[in-house]
């Protein structure tokens, strides 16, 4: 069942933010070797603290930069729309919306087999993810060459296929190296790459359009795809040497660090089981009913983030010109990124998920309602801060919950993360059609739908909390001496 180990507590050791006792409840339950209600243990060993710091300095900046460029390349089309992309390519009706949604069809095909391949240990994750990044950089750059609707659809479809391995792969890598109390913070930093990409995409586009539009016989939107694609290609080359592989074979860790990295995840896993291969991990995942509740929760959450692909369009409904609109997209996303990191730290410190999701999605719900019911410019701009901060903040909490709940084997964890990511990304196939131009400036259909999505995210979080509390009671009956239990 679960391996139990005593943990030597070293005094006078500098602790990290995710090591601070979260509450009086944690202190009271520390009679079981410093464990909290779920059996999670704070770090006190100087070697473990040094290891996590080393991992942070190598892994987190690399994954952040990769995700920043992933979303920058993916969402460049949203800013290109403001530079007459539709007119230049002759897009009419819902053709632009189709170009948005087709990318996620490519995502659906590639994510699950990609994570199964990574967990099979047949490829080096560092090399595999770096090569995938080179591939998407190439496809993103080629978007500048499309001449019509058909060309754009084809490029977007293949961009989805080559970008698909990154995000579930990054989540899987984080789950291999970080414990339940640590992972929410790291996922929030990773996801901040997405949020900051939305923030700076408008500024980058504004500068590109202002300086390069119609230069050398190319439109500003073409230069945007070229510049962002070339930068992505350069970062991909460096990432190959910075990313880790598995805990036991990462090249830039010492033998002692590799063993410690492996053992600390083993002792933090609920219901640890021996690995039986990628196919067995797939079957373990699909047979676990909790997978489907988490899948629904994340689908509802990402459905509520559908404004991401249309953020410049939503902000343009405030009535400003193109350059000011692009600049105004920056502050709400920057604030959302900072809030997201804070929520990730808080969730990890308190080892709590449900209330964090409830409060932040409640804030988002209020923002969506305000945006749908008023045309007041100030109120609508404030609503952008509310729904962006509320929705983006809970991503790390939900995905940390997935790896902590469905991580009995590394293969099951990898497949679960990819399945849930696929199911949630499926929302981006249909949500673009909630934003027809004819529904502006309020976009009542989209905003009211987003409010419903936020509410259902909250409901599903509470259902899972009750479910895990029931499961923990069963585990305690089977093991009265205490052990590792599900966090909620």
From TrEMBL:
Segments of skewed composition (Basic and acidic residues): 1-17, 25-35
SUPFAM superfamilies, per database record: MFS general substrate transporter
Protein topology in the membrane: Multi-pass membrane protein
Major location category of this protein: membrane
One GO CC term, this protein: membrane
Residue ranges crossing the lipid bilayer per the database entry: 126-145, 157-177, 189-209, 221-243, 291-311, 323-343, 355-373, 379-402, 414-433, 445-468
Location(s) in or outside the cell: Membrane
Residue stretches making up the Major facilitator superfamily (MFS) profile domain: 59-488
Keywords per UniProt: Membrane, Transmembrane, Transmembrane helix, Transport
Molecular function per GO: transmembrane transporter activity
Annotated region (Disordered), positions in chain: 1-35
Domain of life: Eukaryota
The keyword Transport is annotated on this UniProt entry: yes
Pfam families recorded: MFS_1
PANTHER family: MAJOR FACILITATOR SUPERFAMILY (MFS) PROFILE DOMAIN-CONTAINING PROTEIN, PERMEASE-RELATED
Record's protein name: MFS general substrate transporter
Species this chain originates from: Zopfia rhizophila CBS 207.26
